[in-house]
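Re: the 181-residue chain
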Amino acid sequence: MGANPSSGLETPPAIPYVAPPMARPRPLEFDKKKIVAENRRARFEYFLEEFFEAGIALTGTEVKSLRFGEGSIAEAYADVKDGQVSLINANIPEFSHGNRFNHEPRRPRKLLLHEREIEKMHKGLSREGMTLIPMSVYFNSRGRAKVELALAKGKKLHDKRETVKDRDWKRDQQRLMRDRG
């Protein structure tokens, strides 16, 4: 310990400054432990621009139905109203062992997001031709039900033809590489 010559008291040693930890960066891929429903057609129908992960406000019987692997988001979409995002037209069938308090299968479900993400979605939807598409419903490693949303722009017919042509060409390339070794 260092001594202070004027007072005869010892001063404590200097403690180095340690900066507080920064916020953890968002992962590029979401933590999907068990996928319940996927919207595979969306990659063909839309140009996907930006992805979001949202929690879903569910009732008990809805969670049980999802855990049994039931649910469909084929015709579903999300909408931003009054600063809240809702999942509309998603089908989670009634729980088979549910009682009279069972849920309504196609009710709008509130999605849980940060305000910044909701603002981003609102700005994206205000542009012409943009929509919010649910890509998948899944459970993460902590057992929470999540929805992967994509801000997307609809493809025209000629874009879809181009997608089919590229997919067929890649399949032929793989076949040629496999046959020729």
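Residues 30-148 form a domain with the Small Protein B; Chain: A; fold (CATH 2.40.280.10).
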